[in-house]
């Protein structure tokens, strides 16, 4: 036994060997690993030691237990690293999309504020024009009937006819 193997906990030795076997393909994905009793005999350790090593590999999603059936190889460590990297890339992409959506919402809010400002400005202009029309009609000695003018325009639009204002 190498000096490094003597200083590490027994479960770590079993863990490292099983990890190596899965990584190398000696234990391929989908294959059932040897039973606890068989691993105990192979490594010369107790059942709790084997269980701790297997649980650690299950915690890393390398092995997967199926109650009453056994423990199977779920994935190679390298594949899990690729999967983790892919998930990290997806997460980063989603973060970028969230930032763009936030920017778009801010732009939309600014556009709505600008439109509100423009509508307010147009309303003020219409009020000023309305006041000037009232003044102009007054100078001509004619009553300005805004409601009547609006009603005439509406009636003309419904019937397809168009009448000049004040006619």
Q: Can you describe this structure?
A:
It is built from six helices and two strands; from the N terminus they run H-H-H-H-E-E-H-H. The protein is mainly alpha-helical. A hairpin with a 3-residue loop joins strand 1 (63-66) and strand 2. Helix 3 (36-43) crosses helix 4. It starts with a helix and ends in an 8-residue tail after the last helix.
Question: What is the fold's blueprint, element by element?
Answer:
Elements: H1 3-7, H2 10-24, H3 36-43, H4 47-59, E1 63-66, E2 70-73, H5 77-139, H6 146-159
Antiparallel strand pairs: 1-2
| Low confidence ranges | 159-167
Largest sheet: 2 strands, antiparallel
* Overall morphology: rod-shaped
Report the total helices: 6
- Provide the residue-averaged pLDDT: 83
Helix-residue proportion: over 70%
Give the terminus-to-terminus CA distance: 112 Å
Based on secondary structure, the structural category is: mainly alpha
How do the strands line up in the largest sheet? 1-2
Helix-strand string: HHHHEEHH
Total strands: 2
Residues in β-strands, percent: under 5%
Radius of gyration: 40 Å
